[in-house]
């Protein structure tokens, strides 16, 4: 049951990325990104209100604003990269995001960095290089799109660290 739920979630996210690419080619990166996250925010706010959850405090709002800014930068960069590069390539490049979380957690949250995290991160990065390697014609806008995908991964990792920092105070 759990495996099926995970597979369905991954499939839904892959479908969403493909739709983002398709729609952004016709309607523009900013419009598609706005409507994707605007709709998500509205749905989340309605669920939050229906559950009777309290509003975040002022201290929490600052960090949520930082996280929202990181997510907005991530989303625009990711979707723009999708318009210039193959979907599979952008996904492979952004797989570095989870690899960045242990060093960011060590830097900003003072969490210990274990040797196995470093080794796993190195192996994952090599895997991304193997998947991306031998890509033809990475010049001009395509090279900028690779940089945008890398930037999106950095922003995603940063937003996850901010979320982790607030998890204890805000709860699920």
What does this structure look like?
The chain has helices at residues 2-27, 29-50, 58-84, 87-94, 97-109, 115-132, 140-170. The two termini are 23 Å apart. α1 (2-27) packs across α2 (29-50), α5 (97-109) runs antiparallel to α6 and α5 (97-109) packs across α7 (140-170). 20% of the residues are buried. With 172 residues, it is an all-alpha fold.
Which key features would you list for this structure?
7 helices, single chain, globular, mainly alpha, 0% strand, 172 residues
Strand % is: under 5%
Content-based structural category? mainly alpha
Arithmetic mean of pLDDT: 86
Q: Helix-strand pattern, N to C?
A: HHHHHHH
Total DSSP helices:
7
What low-confidence regions span 5 or more consecutive residues with pLDDT below 50? none
Shape: globular
Gyration radius, to the nearest Å?
Answer: 18 Å
Number of strands: 0
Task: Give a topology summary.
Blueprint: H1 2-27, H2 29-50, H3 58-84, H4 87-94, H5 97-109, H6 115-132, H7 140-170
Concise description?
This protein is mostly helical. It is built from seven helices and no strands.
């Amino acid at each position: 049951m759990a495996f099926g739920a995970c597979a369905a979630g991954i499939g839904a996210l892959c479908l969403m990325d493909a739709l983002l690419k398709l729609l952004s080619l016709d309607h523009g990166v900013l419009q598609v990104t706005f409507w994707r996250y605007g709709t998500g925010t509205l749905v989340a706010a309605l669920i939050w209100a229906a559950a009777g959850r309290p509003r975040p405090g002022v201290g929490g709002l600052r960090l949520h604003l930082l996280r929202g800014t990181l997510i907005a930068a991530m989303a625009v960069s990711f979707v723009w990269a999708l318009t210039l590069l193959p979907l599979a390539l952008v996904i492979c490049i952004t797989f570095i995001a989870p690899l960045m979380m242990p060093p960011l957690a060590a830097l900003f949250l003072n969490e210990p960095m274990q040797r196995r995290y470093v080794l796993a991160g190195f192996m994952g990065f090599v895997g991304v290089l193997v998947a991306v390697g031998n890509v033809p014609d990475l010049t001009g806008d395509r090279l900028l799109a690779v940089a945008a995908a890398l930037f999106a991964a950095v922003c995603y990792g940063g937003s996850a660290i901010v979320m982790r920092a607030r998890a204890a105070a805000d709860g699920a």
